[in-house]
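User: Sequence recovery, please. Input:
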């Protein structure tokens, strides 16, 4: 795959049609040049964003559980809490925000959004525009142009200026459009995709269950030692060691996706079944146990677990949410401790 110096240039060559199936967590890498960010976190197309308020989290519109309360809860529950981490925003080659008092807003169907106190934002960075919108829960919202030197993002930040009495925590706070900024950092490490969600979790477990994958009467994989990956908001995903796979059935395709929690992902076609399997060749250290193992899409090929056929469960979908600027393939592929450090 060809790699450009900056995969988020002004020209976009990537196809914007149907997204590939599989763990598209956040970023799709086009076969030639560009890196694209997709909503959090794995598997399929759709309209939900994983964590507390998205995918199938408890505050999302697709929640799989329910609150044990006598009266129905409002259809939309917004939740805000302190991030309790130092977070910084870089734009136009300079720091425009630096705060240890960031609040995270969890809104149904959306990633958590970081809100910075106005006092922790450079006074020269924000210029009020005439553009306003009416937020369904938080009232009148104004937009700012963000400026740094010769660089301008015309709608780079917003502030809720008509807050209801029950949402005053957001008073005097500004949020930045993720795609419009150069980069976001926690301390000296770049954060990609969206603000970190403390309610997102991944667990990996070894199991002796019998997993068999077939396609067109051919056994593709047969194992009694798969790893199962449990990820917030998603059904389990089963990973198989290559020694238990007929690798002659796997045809690599020129497509990659990126998950901020797992790393870069490669895809395989099996026969006529396009993008039927995927693998993280060098998964991040935190999930390194799945490195170079292969997982299979149960609605594309036939997957049996202990004799029972697996099917893709409802709600395992994501939608594109735009690019994370200036993120290269090399940068995305690095473990967190080796990623781009904050400029001095």
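Assistant: Recovered sequence (344 residues):
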């Amino acid at each position: 795959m060809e790699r450009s110096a900056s995969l988020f240039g002004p020209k976009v060559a990537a196809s914007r049609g149907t997204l590939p199936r599989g763990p598209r967590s956040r970023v799709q890498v086009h076969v030639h040049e560009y890196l694209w960010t997709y909503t959090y976190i794995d598997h399929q197309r759709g309209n939900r964003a994983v964590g507390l308020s998205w995918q199938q989290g408890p505050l999302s519109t697709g929640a799989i559980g329910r609150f044990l309360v006598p009266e129905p809860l409002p259809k939309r529950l917004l939740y805000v809490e302190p991030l309790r981490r130092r977070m910084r925003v870089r734009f136009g080659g300079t720091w425009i925000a630096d705060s240890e008092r960031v609040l995270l807003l969890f809104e149904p169907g959306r990633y958590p959004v970081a809100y910075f106190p106005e006092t922790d934002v450079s006074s020269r960075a924000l210029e009020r525009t005439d553009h306003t919108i009416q937020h369904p829960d938080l009232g009148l919202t104004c937009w700012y142009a963000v400026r740094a030197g010769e660089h301008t993002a015309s709608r780079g930040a917003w502030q809720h200026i008509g807050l209801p009495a029950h949402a005053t925590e957001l008073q005097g706070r500004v949020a930045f459009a993720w795609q419009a900024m150069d980069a976001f950092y926690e301390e000296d490490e770049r954060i990609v995709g969206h603000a970190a969600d403390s309610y997102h979790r991944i667990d990996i477990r070894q199991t002796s269950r019998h997993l068999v994958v077939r396609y067109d009467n051919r056994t593709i994989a047969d194992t009694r030692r798969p790893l199962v990956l449990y990820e917030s908001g998603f059904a389990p995903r089963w990973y198989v060691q290559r020694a238990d796979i007929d690798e002659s059935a796997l045809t690599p395709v020129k497509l990659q996706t990126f998950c901020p929690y797992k790393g870069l992902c490669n895809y395989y076609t099996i026969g006529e079944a396009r993008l039927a399997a995927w693998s993280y060749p060098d998964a991040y250290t935190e999930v390194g146990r799945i490195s170079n193992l292969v997982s299979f899409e149960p609605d594309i090929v036939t997957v049996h677990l202990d004799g029972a056929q697996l099917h893709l469960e409802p709600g395992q979908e994501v939608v594109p949410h735009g690019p994370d600027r200036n993120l290269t393939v090399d940068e995305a592929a690095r473990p967190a401790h080796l990623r781009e450090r904050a400029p001095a």
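The chain has one helix and 24 strands.
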